Each structure stands twice: as C-alpha cells, then as structure tokens.
Amino acid sequence: MKKLFPKGLLAIALCCSAGIRVSAQQKDTVPPAQPPANLPAIMANPQQYEIADITVAGTQYLDKALLLSLSGLSVGDKVVYPGGDQFTKAIQSLWSQRLFADVTIYVTKIEDGKIWLEIGLTEMPRMNSFQFKGIKKTEADDIATKAGLRKGTVVTPALKQNVIGVVHKFYADKGFGNATVRIEERKDSGQVNSMGLVFLVNKGNKVRIDNINFVGNYNIPDSKLKKRMKGTKERTRFTLHPDTRQVYVDSLAQPDDFWKTYGFLQPTRALDKLDPYFRFKLFSSAKFNETKYIEDKSKVVSYYNSKGYRDALILKDTTYKSNASNLNIDLAVSEGKKYYFGDITWKGNTRYSDSVLTRILGIKKGDVYNLELLEKRLGKQMSQEGGDITGYYMDYGYLFFQIDPVEIGIRGDTIDYEIRLREGPQATIKEVRIAGNEKTNEHVIRRELRTIPGEKFSRADLIRSNREIANLGFFNPEKIGMNPVPNVADGTVDIDYTVEEKANDQLELSAGWGGYIGLTGTLGVTFNNFSLRNIFRKETWDPLPSGDGQKLSVRVSSNGKAYRSYNFSFTEPWLGGKKRNQFSVSFYSSYQNPYAYSNYYANIYNQNATTTDGHFKVMGASVSLGKQLKWPDDFFTLIYSVNYQQYKLKNYNYFGIAGFDNGTSNNLNLKFTLARSSVDQQIFPRSGSNFMLSAQYTPPYSVFNPNKDYTKEPISKQFNFIEYQKYRFNAEWYVPLSRPMGSDNKTFVLKVAAKFGYISRYNNRTTLSPFGRFELGGDGLSNFAIYDRDIISQRGYPVYYTSDPSINPESGQPIDYRGFTVFNKYVMELRYPFSLNPSSTIFGLAFIEAANGYRDMQDYNPFRLRRSAGIGMRFYLPMFGLLGFDYGIGFDRIKSGGGLKDAAKFTFMLGFEPE
C-alpha cells in the first residue's frame, strides 16, 4: 500500500520518498494494503485514471459516506496520478474539518486504466467527561455553559484554548485578573479513542486599584475626572483611631466641605505612617476590568470635549503593580486649549427661518464649545424626548431630512459653524404592517395607531403609537418594535410594527372548610383580552374567546356564614368600533353577618349570645361611558357614570350613629370624571403623568321640599334616600432621573403624587350619611370596604379615626366609624426596576408619605399631617396581577420613650396600587 499524501505534504513526488509515515495507532486500525507491482513504472509516467472504488478506514464515530462526500472524490471521477491536484484538495478539505490527527490517501490497486483508493483517517479523541477543580460548582456550571462544553465533543487545541479564554474573561470581569488554567488529560480505557479533561483553575486574588493618578490636567481636577470613570474606581481606605474612635478617610482631592458634611476629620498623608492605628478597607467597586477601563478612558476624553477642550486626549496610560496583586493607574492627559462657539449660520432651510432654528438649537455665540450638546440639539440620533431640530422636521413628515454641522472657521479659541440642511420631500405613509400578534386581533392594535396610510409621516405619531400599544397591556412593552422603511423612489414610507404577546389574564383562587364556619375562599377570574362577539364560536374558546381587547371580570368570595360577595364587570373600550368610547357595566352584591359565630363563641366561653339575627347587605350596579377628547389635547378623557347602591341594615351598628342600625338606604348618583393620562406604560411608568378630577352628585331631594327640616326626622328615615356632593382630585407625575441605558431600559424613576377629597351636604337641612365618606390608614385590604366608602391607604399606619396626629390609632381612644369628609395625601416614591420581564416584573421603592383626614371643612388644615417613610417591593405576575409588600415607619406613632419598632407596620397589597 502506498501512502500518497501524509499530513502537510502537497507534492505528489514525496509520496514515494522516505518521509512517508504511518502513525502507530493508524497501523493498528488500518491494515496496510499491498502496493501494485508496477508502481515504479507508473510513478515515472503520470496518466489519467478513473476511480474504480474508494474506501474509508480508521473512523469510529463519523459517517463514512459523509466523509467521502467531504473529500470531493467519488467513483467514476477522472484523476491524474501521480501529480494530480485532486488528492491535495481532498486532504485539505478533510483536514479543514479539524476532526482528525492524521489524513492520508493510499493507492491500493491500478489496473486497466482504473485506480483503487483508500482514505486513512486518525480521529481526534472524544471528550467523555470534564471536570473543574479549584472553583465553586455554580461558577463551573456557568463557565461550562459559556464555553459550550458537552460530552462527546472532539478534543482539539481550539477547544482547550476556548475554555482557557472563557475562564480568563469570566474571572477578569469579576476582578480576578490573574486567573490561571491548567488542563490535565485522562485516558479512558473503557472507551476507544476517548478521554476526560480536568481543568485546574486558580483564580488568584482580586486585582484592586489602589490609586488613579492623572498628570497634565491643569483645568479639571482629579476628582471630576475620576467621577467619569464609572467602571474604574480606586479603593477607599478608612482609618479608625483607637483612642478617639474618629474615622479618617484616606482618599484623593476631596474638598473641605466633603469632610464636614460627613463628620470626618480631614486626612493627611502622615496617617499612613502611624502603626498603632487599626486600618480597615472598603473595596466597593475598586476591582479592575480591562473592558470597562477602555470605556472609561473614552469617557474622560468625552468629558473634556463637553467642557470645550475639543483637542483633549490621553497621551499615555500605564498600569503597574502597587503590590503583589493590586494596581496603580497613571494617565497622562493633554488638555489643549478651551474653545467657544462662534457664529452659527444656517443653509438649505425653507420650512423654518434662521431665527426659529436658532431658538430651537439653544446655543449662543460665546457658549463653551460642546460637540456632544450640538449634535444632541440637532438630533443627530433620534430620541423619544424630541425638542431637537431633526424632531421638528420629522414631526412634519420630513423623513428624508438630513442635517450636517460643518466647521467653517476657527478664530483663535472661537469656532464658527455652518449648519447645512437637506429637507427633502415630506414622506407619505404607504403601508402599515403588524406582526407578532398571535392572540390579539389586528384591528385591536390598528385602531390604536396614529400612523395612518395616506397621511404625512410624523415621528411624534410614531412614538405616540408605541405608547398606545404598550398601554393596551397585551404586549411586552420592552419588545414593541417600530421600523419606518423609506421608499426614496416615490417619497413614501412603510411602517412595520412588531409585538410580543404576554399573558395578562388573572386568576384568584383560594378555598377552605372549617367545621362551624363552613366554606371559605375566593374564586376570581379576569380576562383582559376578551371577545364577546365570539362567545358562541366553540373554536375560539381557550379557555374563553379572546382577541378583541374587551375586559370581563367575575369574582365570588365567601367567609362561611359571616361574609359573601359577588362581583361582575364588563368593559368595551371601543363601543361601536369606530371611536374610543369606553363602555362599562358592573354589578356587585355583598352580605355580612357580624353575629354569625356568636353561638359558637358563646358555647366556648360559657356565655349567652346577645343575638344571632343581624346583617348588612349591599347591592349595587354601575353603567359608565367614557369619551376621548381632542381638546385641550387627546390625552384627556371625559367619563359619565350612573351608579346605584342599596344598603340594608338589621341590628348592625357598625357606624356608631345612634338609631342607625336598622333600615334601608338608597344611593343614586351621577358621576363626572375628567382624566388625563400620558404615562408611557401601565405597570412600571418611566415618564408621563396622570390627572383625575371627579364630581359626584346625588339628586338634591331636599331642594324639592324647601320647607322641611330633614334633621328632625328619625335617623333611619333621614338616610332612606342619601344626598351629597363629592369631589376628588388626584395627580401623579413620573420623572426618570436618568436616561434608560442598555437593552434593559432600567433607570431610577421618581413618582410624586398629591390627592384631595371632599364630601358635603347641599344644605343644612339634611344630615350627611356615613356612606361615601373617606377612610384613612391601613393597606386597603384589611379595611371594612364592603360599603360605599373611599379607602385612602397610608403605609406605616393602621386605620385611624381622628385628625390629631399626636393620638396613635392603638392608644385606646374611642373609635368613630363615621369616617372623614375631607382628606389630603402627598406621596413621593423613588422606584427602580429589578426585572422588566413581562412574565415577572419586579421593582423596589422607597417612599415618603403624608396624609390626614378631617371631620369637616372647618377642621381642615393641609399642614396637619401624619408622616411616614419606608421601603417596599412590587411584583407583577400576569396570572395574579400586582402584588406588593411595604414596610413603613409611622413617625407620629412613635411614643414617648419608645423607638422605631413601636411605629413600624408591614402592609400587603394585592391586585391594585393603594390609593
């Protein structure tokens, strides 16, 4: 048998030389064939032969037919032997697969113009196991996933090098810049051509940054430059004096007021030489990360540019060891001189005049040169905030608009600019396409869009459409895509919207059984994307017909014999399908018996039950119609609603009003609500506001009989037909404290809210009933909310019944259940999202609240408030809605000589944000 091409040899002449080799393993797995007898004559006379047969030897795991196909050789092909390049290409093709330690081709027979070939292969060993030593299992699993390690993978040098690279990067990102990896190979005698790999990892010590030193920064101090290096921080050292217990902070270039603010003594370098002092260190984020360091150097230069130093650059940077593991960083800076804006002229503008564009730009001659600010004001990169020149043009359809700032002169330290505009034609929307809505019908999305085919393109309409789709609540707001596709040829634009459905139906289910009590529990379902028109089509039920954007809610709750309630509601957001007219109808009924278990407890305590015959029943219904307004803007909605409640009392004296424990009360009222909502999304708003002003009126029954004094009637008759007028005002603002960064769009958001309510009589000839009033404190769940009363929660406090903040709710004072007629509340929350995943949205918050209720307007004092502060978490789970936990401290609950523990309260919320 003659080997034609050993690995790495391409010349056919070498096939017969003494350099031909066959590995020992190959000799064991590929029996040698006998070479043809006339080989010397053949080698001296290259001829064309037809391949009669090809065999593959030496493979154990790979498919021979596939390998033969990869070689490019097949039976019937014409080849030149010796000297033909077909053999060279075949070996190169197989070798490029990186699966073999050796590739050779043998000529086993030549006869009658035909040639028989054998491809001899030595496979790379397979990895039947791998193991990491020296690190935690969780870290090993993470590294294995990142490196793509799997049993059965071919062991190649590239695989080993990849694992080493992944380990180095994994630990470098965690601050371990000196991690090492050693690989041990272990042969597996139980399996042919297989081995196990053991990765011995030593991550070493963390590489910390001791000092960052700047050189050449004459105009900007070190502290400001270091502040820009968010990912590269030097460690801060603290020194504790053993006698005075004063804390010294050894850090660079802190101003005097820094030390005064935090009560520290200003450090000196002499502290480092005082051996008796006990030193401890706070490392925070002082680890060194090469990738972040490169980014931070660019941020330093950008900061210089923003301060007018357009020629600033880092001449040289050096990292060197300060000790066995830590680093010092030296950066040599060339600041250059400071520049200022000179004359700014405009060219090519016809839509807006020079003066208008100059006013929008907001940069005047003499302002410090800042290229980043200039490009932001010009709108070189599209932003949803708007207010830039590109935005103004885009809002009027100039999709093909281009703008370029050109330096036309530098006079000393002054730079003149000419802003060149190419307005182009106004683009008309041609097609609007929607994709990704697997459950929701397309018309539900399309009716929310402000981008209509045939109308002029507007960036403001595009952004507004995004907001409207997000506020439907059916889609992941982080995955809504908007892609304008310009058609330059005809001056039109197509717009592609993409959405990702998310689960938003909710289920509430609990059940129990307790002897004398009976059945307890709750069953509630809310379908937020219901379809009434498909209710008789079986094929649309999954589990109910859906896709038309309607809302159906049903809830049944029971606490045995003591309490039960039924609730039903239905909402159609587009009544008639052509305009945003929201129609809602609801019905609810509840029953409460405070004496249900009186016999049970009387038997336990050997007492006589006072009565077992008493209850409080509530039945109500509501019909409302909301209409979107176009003035003052189309964020406004006007809602009309007609509401009716009937209350039946029997031996029920919860309200503390003498004589009002039996009877029937009827509450018919008309409510008008003017609301405005511009929040970007419902679950975690990052911007926008909510305003609500409502007025609620019952018929003025007393006006129809002006000579009658209803206050002299028996109390049970006074409340037969309730009359009142009630006003509510709510305002909420959401302000992002930074621009959302990265793909997760996470940012701190400040929520500020103010709320006010007032209920009163029409005249002094009537008595204001206990229904419709305000109840303050608590979390809204534990309060008695089965009657018509507005529950105004306040974290850090239980329900309170007096306006005096010095009286604690737990102080044993008499409880007055009549409720308040006036209240105000102020809220400030700092929020941060931990997860914006629609299947599990999680955010934390810190809050400050102040609120109080008042018996009447004469007692009203907006500055006499109960104050609280605390922290909380919110979890939005599609199946259960919004869950919340808050831990609040009621400052006015702190008793004399007591502590914060006496004023703390843990509250829970379910399904809604507390009012």
From TrEMBL:
POTRA domain mapped to chain residues: 339-424
Entry-linked InterPro entries: BamA/TamA_POTRA, D15-like, OM_assembly_BamA, POTRA
Database matches in Pfam families: POTRA
Keyword rRNA processing attached: no
Localization annotation: Membrane
Any Gene Ontology biological process: membrane assembly
Domain of life: Bacteria
GO CC entries: outer membrane
Signal peptide: 1-24
PANTHER family named among the record's database cross-references: SORTING AND ASSEMBLY MACHINERY SAMM50 PROTEIN FAMILY MEMBER (PTHR12815), TRANSLOCATION AND ASSEMBLY MODULE SUBUNIT TAMA (PTHR12815:SF47)
Protein name per its UniProtKB record: BamA/TamA family outer membrane protein
Organism of provenance: Chitinophaga oryzae
Biological classification of the source: Bacteria, Pseudomonadati, Bacteroidota, Chitinophagia, Chitinophagales
